Structure formats: structure tokens, C-alpha cells
Amino acid sequence: MAEALALPWTNFSKFTSMAKVFTSPGLRQTASVISLKAFSLANKVTKIKMPEDPSGKETREVLRLWCFNLSYISRTWQFLILTSLTFAFYLVYGYMQELIFKLEGFRPFGWYLTLVQFAYYTLFGVAELQLRDDKTRKIPMKMYLLLAFLTVSTMGLSNTAVGYLNYPTQVIFKCCKLIPVLVGGILIQSKRFSLIDITACICMSVGLILFTLADNAVSPNFNTYGIVLISVALCADGAIGNVQEKTLKQYGASNGEMVLYSYGIGFIYILAGLVASNNLLPAFSFCQQYPIETYGYAVIFSVTGYLGLYIVLTLVTSFGALIAVTVTTCRKAVTIVLSFIFFTKPFTHQYLWSGLVVVLGIYLNLYSKNKTNWDAKIVHLLQKLGLSNRRKILEPENIV
């Protein structure tokens, strides 16, 4: 990328003379557009940026969502659209998941539900692949074996844990994956996170843990086996976001390809496990007795889950794993509220202040990602309210 050149700012004539130097025909590259990157009166430096594209047009990352091209809208609108769709699909997904486990006797068959879910995801992936011109696999198979294992771990164990824990408790445990994502980002991708990011994740996790304690106090339904299941799913969930992000960017594969192979191989893993444990036939016989409440609901559960997964993968690719996890964590908070509304549960005020700690973590994370813009807006607001001491700046024309 063309580097930004720093020029001493003394007066406008010197600046224009230097601009003429850049457009000199003797240089190999001609700057068609010279943009002022920053102007600082404190150190009297102006940065001039020469664009990489000779035409002077900014290059944008291609962002496609199914047949829609979102590359020509602002990053803010891209984020808002993806976030809204994530909420819409996964709220229905969470409702159907809890509704299925409300069926009497379904509790031991969480892995069978995951098998059905993976079967639908594989079919959706095959259908999507047929609509693409490029059908070649870009990610190595050994990488898909790892991705499939992590996917089976996070979704299978999470689905099974619903039968042994209160649904809000299961959701809250999954929200704590912000810390595994940070650790995974450091270990897997050698990323560095700011103190604000770490503080935000700690706030969110502490708030959600306090929410769990409140739930345990008013409606104790904890099971050691369920806690072990959701804890292992939490670790796998924290690792999979970083692995997906690194793999997608390294090999340039599509989301559809990753979904097809990850869930197709994961289906084989689960099927082999159910056959080996002799749990396949009992689950199949039970679901035959309640086809609407099991297979019927599983269709809606799988369709909304697949569409939501596609959106989250797009978020991971475009905005990174930490932003994607923050969005899904907020969605889980809304899911918990709706769970209390649609399914009768006891309530305590500890839920409220525990939720405020989570909100604090969310805003700290958003501040970390937009620190420069937010600082400028805060300073402007304080100056407008007369709460900030504004030092008088001597402009060149004011110096006698």
C-alpha cells in the first residue's frame, strides 16, 4: 500500500509547491488524488496519502449475502444489516430449541436432534453449492476434519445440555465464550487485544455468571452432567470462531463451502457415535411417536439456524471473531428475555443489575472498536456544553 508522506506545514504556498513535486512527470507513479489524511496543530504535521489505485478510487472489500451485493453501502450499514438478520433468525432458533425440549421424554435425545440438524445443514449446503459457478473445494480436508470436530462439540454438547439445564442458564454459559475467543485469538492468530477489550469481556462474563447465580437461587435446576457438557461446548465455541476466521481468510473459501463440509463431516461423526452407543434406534422410535413436535419443529429450527449461521460466518469474515461474538452475545441476552416471556419462569431483580454489568461490557467493547471517533464526539459534546477547557490556538494569521 502506498505510504503516507509527512510534510512540514508552514504555509499554503509551500504545500502547493510540494504537491506539484508529486505530479512531476519524472516520477514513475503519478498521484491523481492527494488527500489530506490528518492535520495536527500540536506537532505541525500534515499527512499526504497517495492511493494505491492510480485512478484514485478507494477499493472496497467485496461483501455478498446470498444474491445481494452489500459492497457498495457503508460499513455501518453492512454491520447493521448483518446484526439485524442475526437477531431475527437466531431468536426464532432459540425459541424452537426450547420448545422442542419441552416435549416430555425428549431430554436424552439431544444428540439425535443435532444429527437431524446437521443433515438439514448438509442438504442446504449442497443446494447452495449447485448455485455457484465455482464448485471446487479450496480448504484442505484435514482442516475440515478439525472444523467438523469443533462444530460437533459446540452444537451437539450445547443441544444436549438444554435437557439438563434451565434454558437461560445454558444460554448464559455460552455467552461467556468471549474469554475463550480472546485467548484463542492470541494463541491461534497471534492477535493482540487492548485492555479495554479484555475489561469488556470480563464485565460481560461476570455479569452473565451473576445472572446464572440468580437463576440458581430462584429456580435451582442444575445438573453436574449438564454443566460439564456446556463447559466443553463453551471452549469449543470459543475456538471455532478463530479457526473459521483464519481458515476463510487464508484459503479464500466461501461460507457455503465451509458449511457443507463442516456439517457433512460432522453428520458422519454424530451418526457413528449414536450407532456405537446404541442410541440411534431409541431416539428414532421416540420421534416417530411425535413427528410434528420433533421433525416438524426441527425443520424450522434447522432453517433459521442455517440462515443465522451463514450471517454469523459473514460477520466473522468481514468484521472479525470478536465483533461477531459480541453481536451473538447480545442476541442471547434478548433470547433470555423472550424465554421468560414465552415460557413461565420465576423472576428476581438480580437479573436486572446483572444484565447492566453485561451492558457495560458491551459498550466498552464498542468503544474499543470506535475509540477515535467516539473520543472526538465526546470532546465535541463537552465543548458544546462548556464542560471542557478549550485552549486558545494561535493560527498563522493571528500571529503579529
From TrEMBL:
Pfam families named among the record's database cross-references: UAA
Compartment annotation? Membrane
Q: Which UniProt keywords apply?
A: Membrane, Transmembrane, Transmembrane helix, Transport
One molecular function GO term is:
3'-phosphoadenosine 5'-phosphosulfate transmembrane transporter activity
Annotated Gene Ontology cellular components are: endoplasmic reticulum membrane; Golgi membrane
Report whether Amino-acid biosynthesis shows up as a keyword of the record. Answer: no
Transmembrane intervals? 79-97, 109-131, 143-165, 195-213, 225-243, 255-275, 295-313, 320-344, 350-367
Output the InterPro entries linked to this UniProt entry: SCL35B1-4/HUT1
Highest taxon of the source?
Eukaryota
Q: Where is coiled-coil annotated? A: none
**Which membrane topology describes this protein?**
Multi-pass membrane protein
Q: Family per UniProt?
A: Belongs to the nucleotide-sugar transporter family. SLC35B subfamily.
What is the protein's name according to its record? Adenosine 3'-phospho 5'-phosphosulfate transporter 2
